[in-house]
Amino acid sequence: MRAIVPYPAGPTHFRAHARLRVELLGTITAPGLGAREVRVRDLGVGGAGLEIDVVGATEPLLAAEALVTLSLRAPTLWDPLALSGRLAWARSIEPGHPRRAGICFDHADPGKLLALFHLLGAHAADH
Fold first, then answer.
1. Residue 115 to residue 100: CA distance in whole angstroms
2. How large is the greatest C-alpha to C-alpha distance in the chain, in angstroms?
3. pLDDT tens for the chain, residues 1 to 127
4. What is the rounded distance in angstroms from the CA atom of residue 76 to the CA atom of residue 100?
5. Rounded distance, CA 11 to CA 42, Å?
6. Domain limits at 37?
7. How many domains does the chain have?
8. Phi and psi, residue 98, nearest 5°
9. pTM (2 decimals)?
10. Would you say residue 5 lies in a domain?
């Protein structure tokens, strides 16, 4: 059984909300980008950390602050959960490796926030 270790949050850390390590699939969409498959590596109420496969690309994937939609797929969801937000940061680790990016969610829909809260609770209970 794998231990659940939330990423730190609070006054001594740059995140306002903790994140859980997850292994979920999703799709990120943005104007000018279209849709790209992603692996969600950490997830919290405030945002998500992603890996995006971009083989051979050297140009920036998206500009910081770009508006995006992340559609999460999980075994506990009937349909994908589409969360809107903005790109907080993006970088390549090494050529040929997935790019990493962070999204800060914009919770304009309380129903989607509640669905995210339930998804996080179900993920924590399963692990």
1. 25
2. 41
3. 333 444 444 455 454 556 678 889 999 998 877 888 999 999 999 999 998 876 555 555 677 788 999 999 988 888 999 999 999 888 766 666 678 889 999 989 999 999 998 888 887 666 5
4. 25
5. 20
6. 19-126
7. 1
8. -65, 150
9. 0.77
10. no
What's the residue count for the chain?
A: 127
Q: 112 exposed, middle or buried (CB, 10 Å; 0-12, 13-18, 19+)?
A: middle
Q: Is residue 85 part of a domain?
A: yes
> Kindly report the CA angle at 47 between 110 and 66, in degrees rounded to 5?
100
28 within some domain: yes
pLDDT in the model for residue 109: 92
Cα dist. 60→11, 57, 78 in Å?
31, 8, 33
CATH for 63: 2.40.10.220
- 74-108 as b/e, with b when 16 or more CB fall inside 10 Å? beeeeeebebbbbbbebebeeeeebbebbbbbeee
Residue 80 within a domain: yes
